[in-house]
Amino acid sequence: QVQLAEFGGGSVQAGGSLLLSCAYAGAYPYSINYMCMAWFRQVQGKEREGVAFVEPDGSTNYADSVKGRFTISKDNDKNSPYLQMDSLKPEDTAMYYCAAEKKGGSWCLAATDFMYWEQAYWGQGTHVTVSS
Fold first, then answer.
1. What pLDDT does residue 67 have?
2. Rounded CA gap, 65 and 10, in Å?
3. Which residue has the higher pLDDT, 16 or 76?
4. Which residues, listed in sequence order, are joined to residue 60 by a DSSP beta bridge?
5. CA 1 to chain centre
6. CA quadruple 85, 7, 12, 63: dihedral positive or negative?
């Protein structure tokens, strides 16, 4: 019904940048322009953490730890959300996941905890390593 695949992970030095993309496939009413999209990250042994969120109307929200450094965007024509990561820090090292959920209203920006997204659609993840 919905498929996601992340691209763009890799290794970078602290202060550097990476652009993550997520190839999204979903037919109406699950086409990307109707979906709440998010990027989460997970360090082994820790719970998955919400990083950035974008509503169908383009409104965004970010975890405090990445505000001012990361930018989430969504290109409906290319069926892809993106996560531009700048000023990377070693603590940004993690597996990054793209997620999609069909919810209305302002749910997307309020539901920043992983427990609200457990039943969402997920990609397989792409790893980011930031060295000091």
1. 98
2. 20
3. 16
4. 54
5. 19
6. positive
What is residue 59's DSSP assignment? -
Per the document, the length of the chain is 132
Note the Cα 61 to chain centre separation in Å.
11
Structure tokens at 36: 């709440």
> What is residue 104's predicted lDDT score, i.e. its pLDDT?
73
- Cβ atoms within 10 Å, residue 105: 10
* Chain segment 82-111, per-residue pLDDT in tens: 999 999 999 999 999 999 999 876 898 899
Give the position of tokens 């989460």.
40
What is the residue-wise DSSP string for 62-127? E-TTTTTTEEEEEETTTTEEEEEE-S--GGG-EEEEEEEE---TTHHHH--SGGGTTTSEE---EE
Mean pLDDT of the chain: 95
pLDDT digits 0-9 by tens, 15-34: 999 999 999 999 999 999 99
Bridge partner list, 74: 81
CA–CA distances in Å: residue 48 to residues 25, 27, 40, 59? 23, 27, 6, 22
